[in-house]
Amino acid sequence: MTGRKRGGKALKVTGIVAGVVVAVAGVAVGLYCDNNLHAEERMIAKAFDAGLVEKQATVNGATINYAEGPANGPALMLIHGQGMEWEDYASVLPELSKRYHVFAVDCFGHGESAHDPAVYTCAANGDALIAFAGQVIGGDYIVSGHSSGGILAAYVAANDTEHVTACVLEDPPLFRVTPEEAQEGAGTFAWYDGYIVAHAFLQQSEVTAYPAWYASHSYLFGLFGGLQKLLADQTAAFCAEHPGEHATNAWVPRDWTRGMYFMDDWDPRFGDSFYDGSWMAGIDQEAMLRQIKCPTVYLKALTNYGEDGVLFAATTDEDAARIQETIAACETIAIKSGHDIHVEHPDVFAKAIDQAASSR
Fold first, then answer.
1. How many CB atoms lie within 10 A of CB 223?
2. Number of Cβ within a 10 Å radius of residue 66
3. Using CA atoms in the order 125, 128, 134, 136, what is the torsion angle rounded to 10 degrees?
4. Contact 331, 320 (CB under 8 A)
5. Digit-coded pLDDT (tens) for 251-267
6. DSSP label of 302
7. Confidence of residue 303 (pLDDT cuts 50, 70, 90)
8. Which helix (H) or strand (E) holds 165?
């Protein structure tokens, strides 16, 4: 009897442990899915809690949507990268808003700013941002841009030297942005995952939701093997059920799918301007960088390549050296990171802003 009682007790304990393990696993899966679905909107909510207010201005007849923070220090213009919008900076806005007067803009073709191919050039968008600064900021300011927004930040710093007091270039694809530059060697990640995907989308009419098209044709998701079709099917179903909403996926890690989040507010014709080269029309990149007179911090994600030789980074080491040499007062900070440094390393990004600002 004693042995049977002990055996029964052991089975009972084992059953309890198994139940706890299942419950804990269920909670972990729930938290994982919840983070994938809602992490972005929670960060954006924190930005609004920090005092950011979304506004719009009409500049030269075109709408520029932006978020303005409390006047807690010098003015700081933030320019997001391609496929994003001002909310992409949500990870750093609460911290930066403590000591800067933030103006985070939507570029043309993104978010709630004007969607008009006539202004999908670096010069047109850059001139509009300079006019925006004069009209809305009304004085000196620091400018920072990420990726294609970094090229815009360089344009603004080069062409508004009277008012731009400092500049932060976050991993811009300078010298690797025109179609010729982007296809040099094995080509760049941006060419395969961005420009040609947007161009192909515009050549068809069957798929109307760009996130669904991107998920199916993405170079990045193509690296997932058979998982791409599953992700593409799930994205297409989401877009059909939630038209006009930011695409999320409960089961795929947020870091992998974050690039799709704002694509519902992005005009693929903007991407096509990089495919055909019209984005950089009339721009001599080296001459533009030589015009920058203010202290500049250049944040570069370390160069890396895919197994097929595709340049995964925004620039090569040689490109980075050229940027450093061409800007008069430039300090390069290289960091082991993906392209979105302000998301992956918000502390490094905030320190770069502070460093540039203190060098004014």
1. 13
2. 24
3. -90
4. no
5. 999 999 999 999 999 99
6. P
7. very high
8. strand 164-170
Please report, rounded to a whole number, the percentage of residues in the chain having pLDDT higher than 70: 92
Which ranges of 50-74 does DSSP label H, i.e. alpha helix? none
Q: Is the dihedral of CA 122, 262, 355, 348 positive or negative?
A: negative
Rounded to 5°, angle at Cα 73 from 72 and 76: 110
DSSP, residue by residue, 193-229: IIIHHHHHHHT-SS---HHHHHHHH-HHHHTTTTHHH
Round to whole Å and give the CA distance between 303 and 298: 14
Burial of 313 (0-12, 13-18, 19+ CB in 10 A): buried
Q: Let me know: does 263 contact 83? Beta carbons within 8 Å.
A: yes
Q: Which helix (H) or strand (E) holds 48?
A: helix 2-49
Question: Is 177 in contact with 189 (CB distance < 8 Å)?
Answer: no
b/e per residue 31-61 (b: at least 16 CB within 10 A)? eeeeebeebbeebbeebeebbbebeebebee
Residues whose CB is less than 8 angstroms from the CB of residue 285 and which lie 6 or more positions away in sequence, other chains included: 174, 175, 177
| CA pair distance 106, 235, nearest whole angstrom | 25
CA nearest to 156, candidates 176, 131, 173: 131
Helix (H) or strand (E) holding 354: helix 346-358
Residue range 39-80, pLDDT digits in tens: 999 999 999 999 999 999 999 999 999 999 999 999 999 999
| Distance in angstroms (rounded) separating the CA atoms of residues 316 and 188 | 10
Q: Which two tokens stand for residue 238?
A: 């989401």
pLDDT band for position 6 (50/70/90)?
A: low
In this structure, what token pair is assigned to residue 223?
A: 């690296």
Q: Is the pTM of this model over 0.70?
A: yes
Q: Are 262 and 111 in contact (CB under 8 A)?
A: yes
Q: Enumerate the β-bridge partners of residue 146.
A: 170
